Amino acid sequence: MEIYLVGGAVRDRLLGLGVKDRDWVVVGATPEQMLDAGFKQVGKDFPVFLHPDSGEEYALARTERKSGKGYTGFDFYANPEVTLEEDLCRRDLTINAIAEDSEGNLVDPYGGQQDLQQRLLRHVSPAFSEDPLRVLRVARFAARFASLGFHIAPETLELMRELSAGDELSHLTAERVWQEFERALATQSPITFIEVLNAVGACEQLLAELCELDTTDAKQRSAALAARSSTAEQQFALLLAIATQNEGDKRAIDSIEALCRRLKSPNRYRDLALQLRRWHNALAGFESLTAIDQLQLIKQLDLLRRPERLAQLRPCVEALHLDLEITAPTLEPLLERLRTLSPQELMAEGFSGKALGEELERRQLAICAGLAAGNQSPDA
Ligand code: ATP
Ligand code: MG
Predict the structure, then answer these.
(1) Residues at the annotated binding site for CTP?
(2) Which residues surround ligand 2, an ion (CB under 5 A)?
(3) Domains of the chain
(4) C-alpha–C-alpha distance, residues 113 and 185, integer Å
(5) What are 59's strand-pairing partners?
(6) Tens digit of each residue's pLDDT (9 = 90 or more) over 277-323
(7) Which helix (H) or strand (E) holds 64?
(8) Residue range 17-52, pLDDT digits in tens
(9) Cα separation of 114 and 99, whole Å?
(10) Ligand 1 pocket by Cβ (under 6 Å)
């Protein structure tokens, strides 16, 4: 059997980038041989194995043929006779279809190295059209490599357009769509992902809420956020806040919730997006809020107990309000002072029940009113 390194590891090393995970392809082996060598099979019918020590993926060379709709509608043909070239041919992009043997020799039958040099995302073969997920994958690679000057080959864009025009995209599971979207959000240029989907007519079907995004403006804000070493969650929240900025609060919230429900986004993504959309204006103009509004915001966001929320929201708020003059934060010192109030102390002073709650609130408001200079009194 022969073993080759393939996919992202070869591509990223040729680009001079760090390599995260490594994928391997095994030519001339049977599943039995792999199991005998101590590999663990991933799934019952799938010719992919995990290395007993490294846990890396070793896939038997295979060809694929479309047998139905959607991502699982594939027949695999893994057999010791399947050649490396045949296996590379079923891959999505030429830059992902370069193999490297144990001596460091490259096998590159589809011109992947040349396309790397020319910064070109180009499909390997017409079989590209057999898997709609590839529309999303190419959009994600366009986002990931945007800063390196990569663009999508016109003939590949054409296939992506054809795929998107049919009903193929509707057969993708929410998990698959979310996985690609989430990875795109973690790149340097998440907006490129949306632009590509829009350009091939896939955005309406997959991410309708983001179709109307002013991408020039969004790019500027997204880059400003990325410059503060943002997470995918923060980029997601920012994108949705921008996309819904011209809608009323109720419609905006509904639209964010609908998208998250449809894509089955993890709750932490949804919650941050909703918090940002609801509170970014108040956070941006915190100094000029009344003490009552300041306290309401602090309570709604539970900031006394969840300081990490503010740390997550702040860079997003700054990216949404780029013209904002960054002054020394008033919110953090305020939270510090509010935290010094303890119900126990009030109880020791004789407060209890409803009166305790009222007294606590009164003192909280006094602190808010006192800290922000020029603030109105609580009952103004
Ligand atoms: P990453 O750095 O994000 O891991 P990658 O290129 O390694 O990028 P993987 O999802 O790990 O992407 O897949 C490994 C390889 O398998 C790809 O480089 C590509 O050759 C092939 N591949 C994965 N998914 C598909 C797909 N849906 N269609 C065609 N080829 C695919
Ligand atoms: Mg990989």
Answers:
(1) 8, 11, 91, 137, 140
(2) 8, 21
(3) 1-115 (3.30.460.10), 119-206 (1.10.110.30)
(4) 27
(5) 25, 48
(6) 999 999 999 988 999 999 999 999 999 999 999 999 999 999 999 88
(7) strand 62-66
(8) 998 889 999 999 999 999 999 999 998 778 899 999
(9) 14
(10) 7-8, 20-21, 23, 91-92, 96-97, 131, 133-134, 137
